[in-house]
Every structure is written in structure tokens, then in C-alpha cells.
Design a protein that fits this description.
325 residues, alpha/beta, two-stranded parallel ribbon, 11 helices, 42% helix
Length: 325
């Protein structure tokens, strides 16, 4: 598993370990956000007998090749990436190193050593300026509005090429705004809670009229674990002409919520009002995300369903305990 010290990765690793799986996790522990938080996630996994950790950067070609040569992995769950839409405006080369070259190293490892199934994280960002909602996996995704989104679309194309050429069973998962305890500090909900508790104003972009399909982390974990065992066969993507053992699914709560309503839910969980500053739309953002999860339901038998109020309450409880506020 790549990105094992990350938000989603640490939760998926925990779930697999609890089910008796052996997990070999890698992470470069970069400082894009608080490394202490990543280390604390790791600390919960390290005592487990079935867990092994190696600090390794995806961009390290020799290191990645040695990793695959030294271990015969049955599954590869690739969750590592340089995340963040706005950060891609500041440091674009971090995205090419991790999301493009790094992903190529993962694909090469899978090709050379052979795996039963590669599951990788894509993103709802690939839908870009798409105005059709809800977003379906067979919609065109040719107009990304951020470099981050472009790298995720590139990942899907690269994965399909390797799946087609080398018959590697591969599934990509387009995650929709994942949130929950142990989450990423660069995400809006994390920043909002932090600021409200500190009596600081929060910036509300697009005048609060953004709509997001917020997906609780436990639902994402359930989706990942179920998909791992649902190995695609040749022609899995349907009647689009592809004969590769390749599949794409949306994993989202399929209930978009306007940002202003989202803030109200946070205020209720904190029992404290927010001080808001309405701001214009930011470059690279999209006004709305909305997942069509009909394929996931029909083929994998699952759809995310945690209510936003429940998920935010759990996040707030974790935040108060972790930070002692």
C-alpha cells in the first residue's frame, strides 16, 4: 500500500489488518502538511504483527524496483499522491514527480512482478468543468481545470494502457471530498473547525455557493476493500471499446451539500458560530461535485451512506481529543 501514513491509507491499512491481511506500507512522509499527524497515524499501525513500513518515495525508481523485486505482492493499493488543487498552482513539479513519474514506477512494478489486482486512487477533480450532474464514470473528462486534476486523468490513461498491454487487472476509484477523523489539515472542513475554535474568520469561496459531495472516510474504506476483491476481467469497462481488465468507479456520498449548509452543520457540532468572509471563486476549483454511484452499487453491492451530520460530529469529537481543545 502506498500512502499508508496518509488519511485514507491509514484507515484502509487498519481495516485490512483487522481482517487478518498482511500489509506492507510505504510513504515518503513529506511535509506538505504536518508530518507529526502522519507519524501519529503510523504509530497506531506499527504494533500490528501483520504490518511492515518502509519510508520510500514513489519518485525513487531504484527503490521502487527493489521493493517489487523483494516482495511478491498479491494486491497493490496505490493511494499516495501529491494532493491539493491550490498547491498545484504553487509547486507544479511536485505533481509531476509524484503523480506521474511516481505512478509510472508503481505500474512498472506491477508489470515486472505481476499482481492479482492494482487498485489506485483517482479523484472527482477529473470531471473538471463538466456541467452534467451527477457525474457518471462514462462522462467525458477532457477539460481539467487544475494541474492536480490533469495528473489524475493522466493516471487513469496510464493505468489503462498498462492494463491493456500487460493484462494487469486494474481499478481506479474517483474519490469525492473525503472527510473524517485523522483527516488532512489542508481540507476546508479541517480549516473551518480549527478557525472557529480559535475565533478566527473563515474564507468562504464562491460566496458560499459551492456544492460538494462529502464522503465519510469509513464509506471510502468499505468501497476500497470491496473493490479489491472485485477483480475486473477483460472488457470490464463495458461497451466503450476497451478490452482491458480495467474499471473505474465513483466513490461519493451522492448527496451534494452547499458550502453554507456545510458550515451550519459544523457550527452545530461545535456549538459555536463561525465568522465568515465571503470570497470569489478560486482558480482550479469547480462549483459542484456530485457522484453517480450506480455502477458501484450494481457491480460491487455498496454505496456510501453516512449522513454528513454524523460524520462531522465524529470529526469534531476526534479533533477536540487530538488537539486538546
Amino acid at each position: 500500500m502506498t500512502g499508508v501514513a496518509g488519511f485514507i491509507g491509514s484507515f484502509v491499512a487498519r481495516r485490512l489488518l483487522d481482517s487478518g491481511q498482511q500489509v506492507y506500507g510505504i510513504d515518503n512522509l513529506n511535509d506538505y502538511y504536518d508530518v507529526g499527524l502522519k507519524r501519529d497515524r503510523l504509530a497506531q499501525l506499527m504494533p500490528e504483527a501483520g504490518f511492515t513500513f518502509e519510508q520510500l518515495d514513489l519518485f525513487d525508481r531504484a527503490g521502487m524496483l527493489a521493493l517489487f523485486r523483494n516482495h511478491r505482492f498479491q494486491y497493490v493499493v496505490h493511494l499516495a499522491a501529491q494532493a491539493g488543487v491550490r498547491y498545484s498552482l504553487e509547486n507544479p513539479f511536485a505533481y509531476s514527480d509524484s503523480n506521474l513519474s511516481g505512478f509510472l514506477n508503481v505500474l512498472e512494478g506491477c508489470r515486472l512482478m505481476g499482481v492479482d489486482h492494482l487498485v489506485f486512487a483517482s479523484s472527482s477533480s477529473v470531471y473538471g468543468a463538466n456541467r452534467k450532474v451527477p457525474f457518471a464514470v462514462d462522462d467525458r473528462v477532457d477539460y481539467p481545470v487544475s494541474l492536480y486534476a490533469a495528473t489524475k486523468k493522466a493516471n487513469e490513461l496510464m493505468a489503462h494502457a498498462y492494463s491493456s498491454l500487460y493484462q494487469i487487472p486494474t481499478t481506479g476509484l474517483r474519490f469525492f471530498t473525503v472527510y473524517g477523523p485523522w483527516g488532512r489539515p489542508d481540507m476546508a472542513y479541517f480549516k473551518f473547525v480549527e478557525a472557529i475554535l480559535a475565533d478566527r474568520p473563515i474564507q468562504v469561496f464562491n460566496q458560499g455557493h459551492m456544492r460538494r459531495d462529502f464522503t465519510y472516510v469509513d464509506d471510502v474504506v468499505e468501497g476500497v476493500v470491496r473493490v479489491m476483491e472485485h477483480i475486473p476481467v477483460a472488457g470490464a469497462q463495458g461497451d466503450d471499446g476497451s478490452q482491458a481488465p480495467y474499471k473505474i468507479y465513483n466513490i461519493g456520498n451522492h448527496q451534494p451539500v452547499e458550502l453554507l449548509r456545510f458550515i451550519e452543520i459544523i457550527e452545530s457540532a461545535l456549538e459555536k458560530p463561525a465568522k465568515t468572509v465571503l470570497c470569489p471563486m478560486q482558480p482550479g476549483d469547480v462549483p459542484s461535485t456530485y457522484a453517480d454511484v450506480s455502477d458501484l452499487m450494481a457491480e460491487v453491492g455498496f454505496a456510501p451512506n453516512t449522513p454528513l451530520t454524523t460524520g462531522i460530529e465524529k470529526f469534531v469529537a476526534w479533533y477536540r481529543e487530538y488537539y486538546g481543545v
